[in-house]
Amino acid sequence: MKTYRIRKPKIVIIGGGTGLPVILKSLRDQSADITAIVTVADDGGSSGKLRESINIAPPGDLRNVLVALSDMPQIYEDIFQYRFKQEDQFLADHTIGNLIIAALSEMRNSTYEAIQLLSKIMHVDGHIYPASENSLTLHAKYKDGTEESGESKIALERKQIDYVYVTNTYNAEKPIASRKVVTAIEEADMIVLGPGSLYTSILPNLVIEEIAESIKKTKAEVVYICNIMTQKGETEYFSDADHIRVLNHHLKTPFINTVLVNTEKVPQGYMNAEKYDEYLVQVAHDFNGLREQGCRVISADFLELKNGGVFHDGQKVVEELFRLVFGTSY
């Protein structure tokens, strides 16, 4: 049920992957002024094929965010999210939504404009902006001095990552933020990072210089929703404090005000290791390490077990976000 408030807090949520839509769906029901800033560095699957074929920003993460913030009937969502079967040759692995975004991007000569048009068509409650209006390529520099390019390839190396950065995929110009992104951050009451893959969903947005600088200057509460599980090739052996250290390292200053940490245990043997093969073990807790970096820690049961996977409970997370943004119980 939708909650209505006289004052709608301005909440900017930054990320990508499967974690972002979980929080956005619950935020949509809480009468917030929502802005989603979405990564455009995905180069795998349907998104990767489309951005190679027709020179557009990858549509997959944007598609999922559109669905999360839309109030369209379930049957329309099912159609938009339908993925063609592997044996369908040319259309194999493509979703209808990705193809629609690609078509509109070509018609309008802009993925940004395509997403704004679809937001109106799909009755999106909020604003959705790609982090950049151009497709970006993610690069990782490993601690052994080697380097890899491409979001889908970085974790495969199973090496410790020192830092990541992005470049424009189709030209040598410096990556810049999409229109209205910096303004949304400047006007926000709260900025939420995650949940999502640290190096491949969250940081590709933050290493765009304009976004990094605006977040460092903001007076808004900056909240990081720490992942529940470590990820193969990205955050192996990481504690929650290690996640914050990496974020601070990339922006060269402590900038996270509050961290949401799940303390509920995942039942042994629960996870479907074949389906969710990128996840390893639960993130270890280092509350002293978090506090040393100036973070307020909110630890609670944020766990949702579903279909053999481990997720954040969107409703519980959003309840904490609203307590923070209003400063009191609401």
Automatic annotation (TrEMBL):
PANTHER family listed in its UniProt record: GLUCONEOGENESIS FACTOR-RELATED, UNCHARACTERIZED PROTEIN YVCK-RELATED
Pfam families for the chain: CofD
Function according to Swiss-Prot or TrEMBL: Required for morphogenesis under gluconeogenic growth conditions.
Alphabetized SUPFAM superfamilies for the sequence: CofD-like
Gene Ontology CC entries for this record: cytoplasm
Compartment(s) where it occurs, according to its Swiss-Prot or TrEMBL record: Cytoplasm
Keywords, sorted A to Z: Cytoplasm
Protein name listed in UniProt: Putative gluconeogenesis factor
Family classification: Belongs to the gluconeogenesis factor family.
